[in-house]
Write a structure and sequence with these properties.
The chain is mostly helical. Helices cover 72% and strands 0% of the residues. Helix 5 runs antiparallel to helix 9. The chain is elongated and about 55 Å long. The termini are far apart.
Length: 201
């Protein structure tokens, strides 16, 4: 389609099957070798797709990584609704920990974050991924405000960011354990701060 970047078309049929095979192969290659050694020809071989198809659609490894992350955002798990802010934030935090500690998804995130540090298109895809996740979970804070659990005007997006921020710090910087206790602690801290009015808009 004219004006669209390679790899951004979402058609059906054979084209969708080719895209799915290439993205799966790209994920496999990233897990095995990381972003620095990602190669479009290797991805085409793994996907059993012609090299010209891959080069024509995605053109660069960062374009392929960006499309892979867009696909991950499309496939993200739906928000949990437990009926309480603490329960919802805990579910969100445990989902983040589960994703980051998954052998495949954790490796993919590290590779994508590495790509985003040096490529604007990958960085844009990373921002879109997190925007999608935040928009998915923000309503749990809005509903908590409606129930009187947090002050009216609480910035729902900031609360969701506050849940995941310490978990990503552990994942990318400190190397401290990522487990259910750390997830629950992050959720509890964000919920307490929200109730205290720290995220007033």
């Amino acid at each position: 389609m004219e004006g669209m970047e390679p790899g951004t078309v979402r058609p059906g049929g054979r084209t969708a099957r080719v895209r799915a095979a290439v993205l799966r192969a790209a994920g496999d290659a990233l897990v095995e070798h990381g972003f620095d050694r990602l190669d479009l020809a290797d991805v085409a071989r793994r996907a059993e797709v012609g090299k010209t198809t891959v080069y024509r659609r995605w053109s660069t490894t960062t374009g392929l990584v960006a499309d892979l992350l867009d696909d991950m955002a499309e496939q993200s798990s739906p928000r949990t609704d437990t009926g309480s802010l603490d329960g919802d934030l805990r579910a969100n935090a445990r989902l983040v920990v589960g994703t980051l500690t998954d052998p495949r998804q954790g490796a993919l995130f590290k590779a994508v974050i590495a790509a985003a540090t040096c490529d604007d298109r990958a960085a844009g895809a990373l921002r879109r991924f997190y925007a999608t996740r935040i928009e998915e979970w923000a309503p749990c804070v809005t509903r908590a405000a409606e129930r009187g659990e947090v002050p009216s005007g609480t910035d729902a997006r900031e609360v969701i960011r506050a849940v995941s921020a310490p978990l990503y710090y552990r994942f990318l910087v400190s190397g401290d354990p990522l487990d259910e206790p750390s997830a629950d602690r992050a959720a509890l801290a964000a919920g307490a701060a929200a109730r205290a009015g720290a995220y007033g808009s």
